[in-house]
Design brief:
Blueprint: E1 3-6, E2 9-11, H1 26-44, H2 48-61, H3 66-79, H4 82-94, H5 99-115, H6 119-132, H7 137-214, H8 225-247
Antiparallel strand pairs: 1-2
Helix pairs in contact: 1-2, 1-3, 2-3, 3-4, 4-5, 5-6, 6-7
């Protein structure tokens, strides 16, 4: 029997009763049955915390007990501990002896995953439930719902990814434009510096040419005083040599060739 617990999700909630057969025999077997019955009583009274403690004791004594795992999964589910309930329903599916029990274990496993919005895991669990019991309409309905929610989630993720891609693209374009502007400013500053250097060079060149232009240029056909003195000294030296030669000739008059400038 399944009880409605949330929209679109049902739980095969009633705990399994302790049957005449038990996996263990003797004192341990009796204790397992005792703890399972004790847990069922707490469960019926909606005291799921105490029920879980009793089922835990039974599971500890018999780790392979399908009933202990299954009922413990139901108790945890009622407490809202869906991760713990999923673990126990999965364990229960390993130790079942019949297809109906296997179908119920997978069905409730799917419900636990659905509560955590683990759509892919719940889909897999419902499919396993339908393999064991193809006529389970609740499992088929929940499977369709989980598939719908998974598709919706994937579409949302794709939309978010597209928005992020667009945002990143816009940011890249902004960064590129910013780099272009920075490069333009760098080139402009470089051109201005080069222009300033050229102006300084031209200024220095004009200054040198101006300094050279201020120096007196020698006039063609004219000599300055220094050149006249050098020429006079040369003439005097030549004149002295000439006079010395003429003195050697007796009776001759020495005539000076010195001229006034």
């Amino acid at each position: 029997m399944k009880v409605l617990i949330i929209i679109f999700s049902f739980l095969a909630a009633l705990p399994l009763m302790v049957g005449a057969q038990a996996v263990r025999t003797g004192a341990d077997g009796q204790k397992v049955r005792k703890y399972v019955k004790e847990g069922n009583d707490h469960y019926k009274n909606n005291d799921f915390e105490k029920a879980a403690k009793s089922y835990e004791k039974a599971k500890k004594l018999d780790p392979n007990s399908h009933k202990a795992h299954y009922n413990l999964g139901n108790a945890y589910y009622r407490e809202g501990k869906y991760e713990e309930s999923a673990k126990n329903f999965e364990e229960a599916s390993k130790y079942v002896k019949s297809k109906p029990e296997r179908s119920q274990s997978y069905y409730n496993l799917g419900n636990s995953y659905m509560q955590e919005k683990k759509w892919e895991e719940s889909i897999s669990a419902y499919k396993d439930a339908l393999k064991a019991n193809p006529s389970d309409k609740d499992a088929r309905y929940n499977l369709a719902y989980a598939q719908k929610m998974l598709k919706k989630q994937q579409n949302q993720q794709n939309n978010d990814q597209n928005k992020n891609d667009q945002k990143n693209k816009e940011q890249d374009n902004k960064d590129k434009d910013k780099n272009k502007e920075e490069n333009k400013d760098k080139d402009k500053n470089k051109d201005e510096k080069e222009k300033d250097k050229d102006q300084e060079k031209n200024k220095d060149k004009d200054k040198d040419e101006g300094d050279q232009g201020n120096k007196p240029k020698p006039q063609p056909g004219k000599i300055d005083k220094e050149q006249a003195k050098q020429l006079l000294d040369a003439l005097n030296a030549n004149e002295k040599k000439l006079q010395d030669k003429l003195k050697k000739k007796e009776g001759e008059i020495v005539v000076s060739s010195l001229k006034d400038w």
